[in-house]
């Protein structure tokens, strides 16, 4: 495990976009925390990256606090937080979507982002050294897709939370920004993306005619967390191949 670099905590980083983000920070020499509700998967990723794995359920404030205590004890205080943990949990129109699906998505995507931000930001304020927070949103916050309204509503709320957090935390030297991907090829979306008709339907909405890979997302996350973005806060940047243009 690296003994230099910043302490970077990435939620939901045992797979998909979160894993790619953790890999990118580790490659840059940072001390990465692979934080995930799936501890076995987190341990596997952390072993590959030379990182620290912690069990973190973003819906449970007690486990979030316990995970932060463990990170602080083993690596030091968190300097960069990436709120990546999120899910769709199913689809359905407004009148058909089960309440439990809606509640699950709100609990993870919105309340989870709020809970982890609240806990980590409080530590950053106490330490007095500033910090950077990057929230993973979605262009769905601004472009509706029938059947995904529950998910998109939580991402719109994450965007609002990003802006409010940026204002409230600015005086402490803590910057808060967001990254809003369009469709990304990950294990979670592989079934859809490997269906030629479904993939063509998605790509037809994208001017660059390409589904993003995780490698298309990570550079912006690292930039927003870096000193090169020292005067950027409260912004949410889309990485969508131009999809929001059409």
From TrEMBL:
GO terms for molecular function: oxidoreductase activity, acting on the CH-OH group of donors, NAD or NADP as acceptor. Keywords: Oxidoreductase. InterPro entries: KR_dom (IPR057326), NAD(P)-bd_dom_sf (IPR036291), SDR_fam (IPR002347). One of its GO terms (biological process) is fatty acid elongation. The keyword Oxidoreductase applies. It comes from the Bacteria. Residues 6-173 form the Ketoreductase domain. The keyword Oxidoreductase applies. Transmembrane segments: none annotated. Belongs to the short-chain dehydrogenases/reductases (SDR) family. PANTHER family: 3-OXOACYL-[ACYL-CARRIER-PROTEIN] REDUCTASE, CHLOROPLASTIC, SHORT-CHAIN DEHYDROGENASES/REDUCTASES FAMILY MEMBER. This is 2-hydroxycyclohexane-1-carbonyl-CoA dehydrogenase. It comes from Streptosporangium carneum. The lineage of its organism: Bacteria, Bacillati, Actinomycetota, Actinomycetes, Streptosporangiales.
